Description:
Elements: H1 6-21, H2 26-32, H3 38-45, H4 53-63, H5 67-75, H6 84-94, H7 98-123
Helix pairs in contact: 1-5, 2-3, 4-5
Amino acid sequence: MKSTTEFDILLGKELYRLRKSNNRCQKELYTKLGLNSQQQLSLLEKGKKHFTDDIIFAVSNFFGISIMAFINAAKQLSQKNYTSFDNEFAEIEQTKNPEIKLILFKKLAIESKIEAINLKLQQLGNFPFTQGFQNSKHKVYVLA
Length: 144
């Protein structure tokens, strides 16, 4: 799994704010986000667990807000102009060659899907048919 970033901390703070302002309990929310325990939600809120695309989508869906509204609210908590999240996309936007730009976008999409698959495998960890896959690491290399 990807290590946490400064942006994960900001998303966690915004998630906590949303949960409290909507009077929702952790138990209700962690099941809706597809997490295994209340502890995992607590780690998300503290910025100690990485926000995958699936979790960001589930948060926005649960609270009835757009993904961009959730992300922008988290960005506003930062004093910096750019977060790690912005830097990834800024680098792609600066690429002049449209073919390379497309490859870089696909690479980001593949990486986020691998994170989602690893999360699902962790959730299935109690089943015998997934025993060999729990600690596997996958890397995707894209040559431009």
